Amino acid sequence: MKLKYSIFLLILLSLFFSSCEDKAFEKNIKQELLVDLTKLKNEIILLQEVIATDGSQKEILNQFKKARLQYKRIEWAVEYFVPETARFMNGPALDEMELEENKFFVPNGFQVIEEHIYPEYSSKNKKEIIRELDILLSNAKQVEATFEAITISNDYVLDAVQQNVHRILTLGITGFDSPILNSSIAETKQSIIIIPELLLIIQPNSKTLQEIKQIASKAKAYCDANSNFNTFNRAEFITEYLNPLSRKLNLFQKEEKIPAVERNRALKATAATLFDENAFDVNGFVASNEYKYSEEKALLGEKLFYDKSLSKDGSRSCASCHNSEKAFTDGLKTNISLKGKNLNRNTPTLTYASFQNAQFWDMRQLDLEKQSVDVIENVDEMHGSLATIHSKISSDNEYIQLFRKAYPKSDKTEAWQIQNAISSYVRSLNSFDSRFDSYMRGNKEAINTEEIQGMNLFMGKAKCATCHFTPLFNGTVPPNFAKTEHEVVGTPEDATGKCLSKDEGRYIFNQLSQLKGAFKTPTLRNVAVTAPYMHNGAYMTLEEVVEFYDLGGGTGLGLTVENQTLPTDKLNLTAAEKKALVAFMKTLTDKKYD
Questions:
Q1: Domain stop point among 376, 405, 427
Q2: Are residues 582 and 478 in the same domain?
Q3: What is the pTM of this model?
């Protein structure tokens, strides 16, 4: 009897402790976030104390890195749920523009502090740094208040975590948010190891979670073994760890029947990786549903694109300046007017133009529809009239049939449809079938050793990817891919580099001093066939372009560029590295142009 009682007692005790273990896993993601946020605030306060008590530069740097690593544990949530505040916690050390109101906000946060403490810390900046840390602490408290107030459901957690993997790939390992210290690899490790911890809270018994744990553990070990920023093999890290991790997250979501978050953005919420053939949606930047892409619209738009009657004198079509054989450029240094006069700007490629929220070098139009009518009615380019074109087309039987197929709900042809159809054709010019794409989808033979070296340089030492973001390779900022950036690089008037280009770029339309000489960051896809380069066609070869950036842009040439956003330090690339960098850029060419 005593034996039976003892066994029964053991079973009860076992069930009790088992229950306690289960409850240990019953954590709340919000609670975990708030705990980590408290730790971040404490690390910021400790950094303030080290600076206030005149700690050594080594002590300051160590504490700064601790604070940054703690931020990386919650970055996935801060960037997702409080993006406006995140910009002033860990955004670039550049003024934030509000062009609609014609004003700007000075930057704050970790990257501003980083510039104050490295490579040389001066106690003269003590008050300024402590003030910046006060602002950082205040922003952390604002984030805390938001986290306490909102509901954080599993679908948003999965979406935020997947976006953070994309952030690691496009911004983290490229040094985007650690441009001086180059502490990106250690921070990448911290961003990855939090992922299985979060999923454990959602579903601890998932088989896929165990696989995610293994990938995260191996990724951590890889970062530990390869901590040098310049020699880190990003090509291997992406294909062996980040892409598999991204796919497993997508699988975890499906297995647990967690719905994808609906959103209208260029990157589809259902994309398993950034490099899926259909990862990006051309409707990401359309003005409204009626403007959405269809093959029928693109077919109509193609006919309009090659129709010379759109110009006033019938001598020029869109294709006259955007040659399909040259990836829809013209091969000229700058465009030529209807009267044969050289214009100021180079004709940009139309391929992948649909993945930007601003058009033209000066970004004066927000979408392709406005861009098309701007060109058609421009006196120097086509000198046409949308009203006249509409009148002609409305009486053309062939066009009428095409319009009916493209816009079946419309009783008659309307002027906006002309713009939309041309824009729809432009939206069809994205293949995503370059050798680079093939490599990222698992074909290891698609690019060679030198090209892989070039990719690692592009995303690392050469810092190209901090402006030309992977995988669009333009200025549309990941992981949201919702905003397109401009840069001031100090482009010279010509290849001699003796004087600065007189073109003031965005400043012409937005009178802020920071925008003098600012131009849209164009895509580098198909760059091998779209020479000449820069907004004014200053350089004929990619080798010349690489040399310009290696020197530090216009400032590196000895020109005065007070508002240059491009880092002015020399990259110190070797001849072999420059050659590899060019070789990599050539892998971005779509099959039809290769």
A1: 427
A2: yes
A3: 0.93
